[in-house]
Design a protein that fits this description.
Blueprint: H1 3-17, H2 23-35, H3 39-48, H4 57-69, H5 74-78, E1 80-83, E2 86-89, H6 102-112, E3 119-123, H7 129-137, E4 142-147, H8 150-163, E5 167-171, E6 185-190, H9 204-207, H10 212-215, H11 223-235, E7 236-245, H12 251-261, E8 264-271, E9 277-284
Parallel strand pairs: 3-4, 3-6, 4-5, 6-7
Antiparallel strand pairs: 1-2, 7-9, 8-9
Helix pairs in contact: 1-2, 1-4, 2-3, 2-4, 6-7, 11-12
């Protein structure tokens, strides 16, 4: 058995014993990171063996595995999170984008469709994952993104520099942002804080490392999402679209609240790739209708 394969096998056992649910994958990703190669290259080295590993590898890998066993997020250790076609820089102080949020982007892109130059606003952008994914896959869009937390905003600015995508980033409160765009926006996207205040997440990676400002949406989790929806209603033109992520048990309540608000003529809930209710799509009604 190659030296690399043996080290990854031992790391997998250690991570599994620490309760890391994706231990085999994380052990391999950290090995690749310690070696400075891609995961595919690391996998080939495990199979083919070859030259001895660099002297610094063992200590570096041991440190990474120990941190992951303490449930430091994998993405904080590698400094990267993959989201649709992009690799984003992430770390302490910013919410790590999740695969389920890719459904929001799919619905958002469908909403702008063939519109030649859509105007898009992303509320509570965090690392910028949604905003940058939309700009990447719809280059004709003019994309604005706002984040209230200075630390998270700094990560979004860094991602704009790394990705070279032209997204206008603002530091400020999403509930009052972009007054000059009111009534002109084609699409508003939002992955708001939606965890109820008393529903502390079980996973240490989330509970201990994601910023509380990005997690908790008020007593029932819907206070901030509904405030964001209200802002979206002011920003959107008639027939513009809001696409908003929510917790898997919040869809029905969010739809009822949107219906009561009177700003929306069509509102539907959509599942993520695992089949859980995840994203509401709502169409802006004509004012006064």
């Amino acid at each position: 058995m190659s030296q690399l394969r043996e080290s990854v096998r031992a790391a997998t056992h250690r991570l599994a014993a620490a309760g890391v649910p994706s231990a085999p994958v994380d052990a391999l990703v950290l090995a690749a990171h310690a070696l400075g190669v891609t995961v595919g290259q690391a996998r080939r080295l495990m199979v083919l063996g070859g030259a001895p590993l660099p002297d610094a590898y063992a200590d570096r890998y041991a440190d990474l595995v120990a941190e992951r066993a303490r449930r430091v997020p994998l993405q904080h250790l590698t400094g990267q999170a993959h989201f649709r076609r992009l690799t984003l820089a992430v770390g302490p102080g910013v919410f790590v984008p999740r695969p389920e949020t890719e459904t929001l982007v799919t619905l958002a892109l469908a909403a702008v469709g063939a519109r030649p130059r859509p105007v898009v606003v992303d509320l509570a952008t965090g690392s910028g994952a949604v905003a940058f994914a939309i700009k990447d896959e719809c280059p004709a869009a003019t994309v604005y993104a706002v984040e209230v937390d200075a630390g998270a905003h700094a990560w979004a600015v860094r991602n704009r520099e790394l990705l070279g995508l032209d997204v206008e980033l603002a530091l400020g409160d999403a509930r009052t942002a972009y007054r000059h765009l009111e009534g002109t926006v084609d699409l508003v996207t939002c992955n708001p804080p939606y965890v109820p205040a008393d529903a502390v997440p079980r996973d240490p990676e989330v509970r201990d490392h994601d910023p509380a400002l990005a997690l908790y949406g008020g007593p029932d989790g819907l206070e901030l999402p509904l405030a964001m929806a209200h802002r979206a209603g002011r920003l959107l033109r008639t027939a513009g679209v809001l696409v908003m992520e929510h917790g898997e048990r919040q869809g029905a309540g969010l739809l009822r609240a949107l219906a009561r608000a009177g700003d929306w003529r069509v509102a539907t809930d959509h599942p993520d790739l695992s089949g859980r209710p995840r994203v509401v799509r709502a169409v802006r009604a004509r004012p006064g209708s």
